[in-house]
Specification:
This protein is of the alpha/beta class. It has six helices and 13 strands.
């Protein structure tokens, strides 16, 4: 990686510098648009006491779920438990600290963190356990709670295409949390299906400008379905 060229050629290089005790922001929703190979590299490195910020924690044996197997995550901010039995078990047994956060609030926490906004007011959660202990303000007759922004030591992101300058395009619903996560890391690492030359991406189609991206790597992906359902014949 040199100058504007953000490419790295191994996952070891992509996640260089991650250490135990760090905070990792991960894009993805369920198993859609998750940086599965970057997660696998975190598992391989064996770092522990991680705080993870992500919509959910993958499934048993895949995605962020693999980091639960050796208890590498000590705390997670997420909007739901999902299809992960191990995540549920560890949460109910107080083996992991889970801060359940409304989905829109979680997305805005990432976006605000990336924009340099320290906190914001939202009506979501007022009058519920989510709002307990948080500052309350009234605007135009409606109550709002103060939510603090979030940033991470690392942000790990899954894109569709990128150029070597780090400009990223996401595909359809795989966009989900990835654009917000990409802005909120001190070091942002993006894995994509294809890397092209600068100028090959239509500028109006770029979702994450390269200014936010520190490292980019091309990988191959399994693309699992989180929960398969079929109609009766």
């Amino acid at each position: 990686m040199a100058g504007f060229d953000k490419r790295v050629y191994s996952y070891e290089e992509a996640m260089a510098g991650i250490e135990s005790g760090m905070t990792v922001i991960a894009g993805g929703f369920g198993l859609c648009g998750i940086p599965e190979n970057l997660i696998a590299e975190i598992k391989r490195r064996g770092v522990t006491d991680l705080t993870v910020i992500s919509n959910n924690c993958g499934v048993d044996g895949f995605g962020l779920g693999v980091l639960l197997e050796d208890r590498q995550i000590c705390k997670i901010y997420a909007s739901y438990v999902g299809e992960n039995a191990l995540f549920e078990k560890q949460m109910l047994n107080d083996e992991i600290e889970v801060v359940l956060t409304p989905q829109g609030t979680l997305a805005e926490k990432m976006r605000a963190g990336g924009a340099g906004i320290p906190a914001f007011y939202t009506a979501t959660g007022y009058g519920t356990p989510i709002g307990e202990g948080k500052e309350v303000r009234e605007f135009n007759g409606r109550h709002y709670i103060l939510e603090e922004a979030m940033t991470g030591d690392f942000a790990i992101v899954k894109g569709w295409k990128a150029d070597r300058y780090g400009n990223v395009v996401y595909r359809h619903t795989a966009q989900n949390f990835n654009p917000m996560a990409a802005t909120a890391g001190k070091i942002t690492v993006v894995e994509v299906e294809e890397i092209v030359e600068p100028g090959e991406l239509e500028p109006s189609q770029i979702h994450t400008p390269g200014i936010y991206v520190d490292r980019i790597i091309q990988g191959s992906f399994e693309k699992r379905i989180e929960k398969r359902t079929v109609r009766e014949g």
